[in-house]
Amino acid sequence: MTDPTSPPSAPRPPCPTCGRPAETAFRPFCSKRCADIDLGRWFSEQYRVPDRSEDAQIFDENDPRRVDPDDEVG
Ligand SMILES: [Zn+2]
């Protein structure tokens, strides 16, 4: 089954924020507001990622709780 007539306009993907048809000026979003919302989400995701490298700095060499290496020798 073939369709000789091409569609008048390509279907636009829905806005990833609210699902409404995207506007060309704000692609892939339907409005600047939705674009800002998505951007805000993206940044909050970034900040939520835990930084493992900071854990290592919690243990200070002068920390009395630090296990002495000599205890391991035996
Ligand atoms: Zn939207």
UniProtKB/TrEMBL annotation:
Region (Disordered): 49-74
Alphabetic keyword roster: Metal-binding, Zinc
GO MF annotation list: DNA topoisomerase type II (double strand cut, ATP-hydrolyzing) inhibitor activity; zinc ion binding
SUPFAM superfamilies, A to Z: Glucocorticoid receptor-like (DNA-binding domain)
Family of the protein in this entry: Belongs to the DNA gyrase inhibitor YacG family.
Matches recorded under InterPro entries: DNA_gyrase_inhibitor_YacG, Znf_NHR/GATA
Gene Ontology terms: biological process: regulation of DNA-templated transcription
Record's subunit section: Interacts with GyrB.
Entry-linked Pfam families: YacG
Name of the molecule in the record: DNA gyrase inhibitor YacG
Cofactor comment: Binds 1 zinc ion.
Cofactors required: Zn(2+)
Residues the entry annotates as binding Zn(2+): C15, C18, C30, C34
Function per UniProt: Inhibits all the catalytic activities of DNA gyrase by preventing its interaction with DNA. Acts by binding directly to the C-terminal domain of GyrB, which probably disrupts DNA binding by the gyrase.
Originating species: Gluconacetobacter tumulisoli
